[in-house]
Each structure stands twice: as C-alpha cells, then as structure tokens.
Amino acid sequence: MRLNRKSGHRSIRFLFRLKLRKKMKMKKISSDSISDWLNPADREQENQIQAGRIAAITWLKLNRKPSLQVAAFLRRQYPEPIVEKILHSLQEDGYIDDQALAKRLVSQRRGYRAESRAALAARMHQLGLEEKAIQAALPEEQDDLDAARELIRSRQSRQVMDWQKAGRFLARRGFNQEVIIQVLRESFSGIDSRDTDQA
Fold first, then answer.
1. pLDDT one-digit tens code per residue, 129-164
2. Which of 69, 96, 123 lies at the terminal end of a domain, its last residue?
C-alpha cells in the first residue's frame, strides 16, 4: 500500500489506478469465464475487444474525449465491428460521455466567451461530439440576441469599445447582422441607422 508521507493517506492517483485495475479485472474475469464456452472465432473477437478497451482507457487517461475521437484512435488498430463494441462498452462504463462534454462546453461559453448558437454547434461538431448530444446540450431558450447582449455587456465592463469594434467582435463570434445591429443600437448611444448600415 502506497501512503502519502505527509498525511498518511493513499494518493488519489494510486486510488484511481487501483479502481481502474479492479474494473478491468472484473471485465476480464467475466470475459474469461464466458470464453470457456465460446468458439475460437468468438474468443478471438472477445480478446480483441478486451485489448481495445485497455488501449482506449490507457489513451484516455484522466481526460474526457468525444466518442468520435476515441473511435478514430481505435480504428487505427481494430476493425469497425470491434470498434463499435468497444465504444458501447466504454459508454456503458462511463469512460465516454458526449452529453456531459457538450453540456460542459455550453456552460463554458457564456459571458465574455459567449457565441451564437450556430457557432457553438459548429465548435462541438469540430470537436467530434455526436449530433444527438449536441442537440440535447444546446439550450432551446437561448436566443442569439440575449447572448450577444450579455457578451457586449461583459466586454464593455472590461474595456472601452467603440461600436464598430464591437460589431466586428460579434460577427467573429458568429452572430448574424440583424442581431449585431440591434445590440449595437441598444448598447451604444448616438448610433443611427446610417452608421450601422455601414458596419
């Protein structure tokens, strides 16, 4: 047993490794007992699934990654049917959770990091999250207009911005022209329709 010298407690890393080993042994024991009555082809497939699980868990370490990234990693070494079974097994055990990743990304993209709904969905697609998880995580009530207002308010409190710079900033964050013009008119006094049409 490994003890932390200062506090006398087991280290968190050691406990994680111990838990991981127990989980893997439990899976291995159950697959070994099943493999006694499997034919050789099924036994080989079961061994590949176990090896793929171990490789994926080792690759994941403590990081949470989208299922498409894990699948791309596994496809380098295993055929597609094996990859699907490994992914299903990892999702059941909680090593892969696209919905939790998508929800975390949505919660991080608020305030001065806010983005339009379309830009946020594109970011999640680029990361490799499944479409079902993206649609579940994107808040239905989120209005691009409210997100743009929140973004400009948070930026104005941190720095002085002129309306043209603010308009370009909102455009880079994926907001459409109607939303940008409305937020600029609300946030900056002295802007008339001729000025915003030029932006």
1. 888 988 888 877 667 888 888 888 877 765 667 788
2. 96
